[in-house]
Amino acid sequence: MNTYKNSELLLERALKSIPLGSQTFSKSKVQFPVGASPLFIEKGEGSKVWDVDGNEYIDFMNALLCVSIGYADQDITNAVCDQIKTGVSFSLPHRLETEVAEKLISMIPCAEKVRFGKNGSDATSAAIRLARAYTKREVVLVCGYHGWQDWYIGSTSRNLGVPESTQALTKVFKYNDIGSLKQVVEQNRNSVAAIIMEPMNVEYPKEGYLEAVKEIAKDEGAVFIFDETITGCRFAKGGAQELFGVTPDLATFGKGLANGFPLSAVVGKAEIMDVMNDIFFSGTFGGETASLSAAKVVLDKVDTLDTPQKINAIGRYLLESLNHLINELGCEHFLGTAGHPSWSFLTISDSGSYNSFELKTLFMQEVLKRGILTIGTHNISYSHSKQDINQLITCYREVFPIMKDAINNNTLADKLECTVLEPLFKVR
């Protein structure tokens, strides 16, 4: 019996009309082992999803972190349904644009004015154009992942199609290594328009690190930008800048803003944001009201229910349980944990005669069999319960010994039911 028969048939069909069979690189067949994983989702509710073959999973990916409250949340669904009955896009602005902007300003430390986009890449690219216009400089310093557009992706190994002249304007510095930043600033003195970074991804910032980056940006006359596409509405009500007590000049938000509806935002100091009057950042769907009505409910929940607090509490319980399990089973030599409780990682290292991708393929094959949807990340939503975490740990209790046995007895090839995943480009 093929557990994923419909998924595989649908992939075969999709590949005839869609490159990779998916609109999103990280949801495509390069991320999931074909033959040992679901490839298409049919529906979701709360913390769970069902694939096109009817298999049920607790979802620890949450649509690449954009589902922050939970699938098909009734309050959000009702608000969106009410709104679309009266129209979605109009010939003039809708009041929701102002109402959601005001809510963001009340919650985010750096926010004095707001502009909306649809994807995180929209927001980060707008912030960079804004910084270049404000400073009249061109070089951008980056740390982390900031989207698909030329100015950023040209600095990665996925730079095919990006002009070399554009690639030359973006420089990478290492997280938690202030010397790395100082060096690249010195090499581009008086040319740096912006320093943009994820305030945290896999590692916590070292004490004083974010403050030091901010000071360097100030001394250089560069715009200091936090990319809070992931950390916003997740690390704290006002994002990582609130949690860590460091306020940037500009910040970009996305993903969790509207619980899966497409919405992003650039926020920041009025003096810089007012340059939006002069640059061109404009899109037909920036004020689309279905997503804004969803965001209004999400932000109310973040504020009144303090959803980040619950997300973080559940995430801490997960990490404590997982670290205990790794130690109990004697798997520390190839497994570990990293990240923030709301967005944590199971790290898999090379071990024995196998590399991390071989071991990760076996890991995914086995956890998916047991009703857990993850690629090794734990993207927590407000809908996740302690019971969900207990089920995850029960799954890991069964899977980790399988991985350990494969390492100790060189039997991974015998255990795999699919081809090994290929390495993807790495930016964190």
What share of the residues lie within helices?
A: 40-55%
Task: Could you tell me the CATH topology label of the largest domain.
Answer: Aspartate Aminotransferase, domain 2
Q: Write out the strand line-up for the largest beta sheet, numbering strands in chain order.
A: 4-10-9-8-7-5-6
Name given to the CATH homologous superfamily of the largest domain: Type I PLP-dependent aspartate aminotransferase-like (Major domain)
> Do you know the CATH architecture of the largest domain?
3-Layer(aba) Sandwich
Radius of gyration: 22 Å
The CATH class of the largest domain: Alpha Beta
The N- and C-terminal alpha carbons lie at a distance of 38 Å
Average pLDDT reading: 96
Following the backbone from N to C, one meets helices and strands in this order, namely HEEEHHHEHEHHEHEHEHEEHHHEEHEEHH
Unreliable stretches: none
- Class derived from helix and strand content: alpha/beta
User: How does the overall form come out from the CA principal axes?
Assistant: globular
Strand content: 5-15%
Q: Sketch the major β-sheet.
A: 7 strands, mixed
Give an overview of the whole structure.
- The chain has 2 domains: 5-65 and 307-415, Alpha-Beta Complex (Aspartate Aminotransferase, domain 1), CATH 3.90.1150; 74-304, Aspartate Aminotransferase, domain 2.
- Helices cover 40% and strands 15% of the residues.
- The chain has 16 helices and 14 strands.
- It has helices spanning 5-14, 62-65, 74-84, 95-107, 120-135, 150-153, 164-167, 178-187, 209-220, 240-244, 270-273, 289-304, 307-328, 356-369, 386-409, 412-415; strands at 41-45, 48-51, 56-59, 113-117, 139-143, 170-172, 192-197, 223-228, 250-253, 264-268, 335-340, 343-348, 372-373, 377-379.
- Strands 4-10-9-8-7-5-6 form a 7-stranded mixed beta sheet, sandwiched between helices.
- 45% of the residues are buried.
- The mean pLDDT is 96.
